[in-house]
Amino acid sequence: MIEGSEIDIFAYLKPLFIENSKLSEIDIKTLKAYETTNYGMIGLIGLLINSKARILLGKKQVYYSDIQNWCNTIETTYEDLEVIADKYLDDSFEEEPEFILRKVMLEYPADSFEN
Question: What is the pTM of this model?
Fold first, then answer.
């Protein structure tokens, strides 16, 4: 994993997703711990580490249409939202930081999904 500005990290990660590159366990752990308020970056990280919470936020951003489209191809269900809510309510921030889970709860109220 490279270090640098968020723009540098974004530029490094995007080709990894496009090329379907295999990430090391250290890379995955680093990405899970990475915190940002940029929904495009959050969505890209979600795609790389298969995090539904991050992918849901990536669907909400509009600046990177390619990332939004990639996130939109990942099916998310009401059950996914329930799992995320349970993690948030149980203070289980091992997979996603509290910020991510809180934002998903705010951006996706329960009635936003069809049952």
Answer: 0.81
